[in-house]
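Final report, results section. Input specification for complex C-07:
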Amino acid sequence: KNGNTWSGRFDEPVSELVQRYTASVGFDRRLAEYDIQGSLAHARMLSGAGIIDEHDLAAIESGLGQIRDEIRNGEFVWLLELEDVHLNIEKRLTTLIGDAGKRLHTARSRNDQVATDVRLYLRAAIDDIIGLIHSMQRALLELAEQHVDTVMPGFTHLQVAQPVVFGHHLMAYFEMLKRDVERLSDCRRRMNKLPLGAAALAGTSYPINRKAVAQQLGFDGVCENSLDAVSDRDFAIEFCAAAALIMTHLSRLSEELILWMNPSFGFIDLADRFCTGSSIMPQKKNPDVPELVRGKTGRVNGHLVALLTLMKGQPLAYNKDNQEDKEPLFDTVETLTDTLRIYADMLTGVRVNRDAMRAAAMRGYATATDLADYLTKKGLPFREAHEAVARAVRFADGSARDLSALTLPELQEFSRLIDGDIYAVLTLEGSIDSRDHIGGTAPAQVRTAIKRARKWLS
Ligand code: ARG
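Structure output:
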């Protein structure tokens, strides 16, 4: 006879391999705190509804309190043959308090129990992650503030396009992270509904009070269909989608840090504590941390696809397939949390080489558009101005000079409309200052953007 909870129905125990294959306690013990929280709320409701008496409730409360301490102190003995976190805790409770422990599972199933635990876990994780995104945003703001007039080339196709200030570039990431926070908050709001009460799938015949449980656990309401409550994991999928986007944003920034740190760019240097050397090449300083962020993004994207695939073939209601939601979900939370934590710190260690940024902006005819706009403002149709400037760039490139290094007669070869006032337009600062509208790169606008961002953060 095996020790399983349902052993009365079975003639033979499962094999050791099946036991190992079906067990989830190795990873779902991360849910222990939430499982206890959920059980306490459930037990209080059972007692309030007269389904168990107050002596049972008192015993359950003290037993679960002791178990919580045992788990926190690392004294709790997890048993594989008890399959998962729920049965491990319940069994221990019964050992501690006897029959009262056996009454806890009245009007409940592991199906609504686990759906509740995962929501509680994820809700706490989201709160944590939003806090970490805010820290990273603060680090971005601080760096942006120091560089509201640090000129760098803006790129399209990774070719020099138009000059921008570095602060503006950094604030682009602030905006992405702002939307990421909104996505997480949105996901949290939809997720914050109580599954308990759905029991196995159809609800329960006991006079339960779901709203009381929801209120105790800080849910905004109850799941309104019992089949849906135990079977869907869309909230976890939504979270993983939001997480994949956050990682994608961080991966893009990482790619830029890696490029900028390359001596051919030389825009920035990362603090040594985020880099490693090479075992063979003594001169190397490699940007391992941003490279790993880029790499781990693949892993988080993979978890999203894993969960979508897990869900797509499941008939209603609960299926054991859903046990497979946990490892991708936990790994997503842990990878994202670590990444955000490390990123906030890494940004404070970025050293900027203003001269290199400026020199790079000087090299790629970054103000060519400004010259075309100048001609257009003097009456030339934009397409013709574009063509005239293209010829001027070709000419300047022939003698390896910037447009601003051409003499006035040379420039006038390309258009009679060009005058001495052109040189103010062709400078990097002239170009940047002229983009003076909301969302533009003019330092005055970037300062306002930073102010708006501070307000949003607070
Ligand atoms: N460990 C299971 C899970 O994660 C708990 C629910 C099991 N329910 C069941 N009927 N087998 O989904």
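Residues 24, 28, 84, 110-111, 114, 318, 320, 322-323 surround arginine (CB under 6 Å). The domain at 111-146+167-201+224-358 is CATH 1.20.200.10 (Fumarase C; Chain A, domain 2). This concludes the modelling results for the funded period.
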